[in-house]
Write a structure and sequence with these properties.
This protein has one helix and no strands. With about 90 residues, the chain is mainly alpha-helical. The protein has one domain. The protein starts with a helix and ends in a 21-residue tail after the last helix.
C-alpha cells in the first residue's frame, strides 16, 4: 500500500509539473501571438499608406499624360517663364 501511495504521489507530481509547464508554454505562445498581431496591424497601416501614396502618384502621372497627349501641353522654355510679384513683396 505504501509503495502504491508513493507511486501515485510521484505520478501526481509529474502530472502537476506537466500542467504547469503546459500553461507556461501557452502563456508564452499567447504573448507571441499578441505581438505578431500588433505587428500585422502596423503592416496593414503601412500598406494602406503605401496604397494611398501610389494612387497619388498615379493620379499625377495620369494628369500629366492627359495634358501632354490630349491637350498637347508642354513645359515652357525657361526664357519664356515670367514671374509676377505683388507690390511690396520681394
Amino acid at each position: 500500500m505504501v509503495k502504491l501511495n508513493l507511486v501515485l504521489t510521484v505520478v501526481l507530481v509529474a502530472i502537476a509539473l506537466s500542467v504547469v509547464s503546459a500553461r507556461h508554454q501557452a502563456r508564452k505562445l499567447f504573448v507571441t501571438l499578441q505581438s505578431e498581431q500588433a505587428h500585422a496591424r502596423e503592416l496593414d497601416v503601412e500598406w494602406g499608406q503605401l496604397q494611398l501614396e501610389i494612387s497619388t502618384w498615379l493620379m499625377h502621372n495620369r494628369v500629366e499624360e492627359v495634358a501632354r497627349g490630349r491637350l498637347r501641353m508642354v513645359i515652357p522654355e525657361p526664357g519664356s517663364i515670367y514671374v509676377l510679384q505683388q507690390d511690396g513683396q520681394p
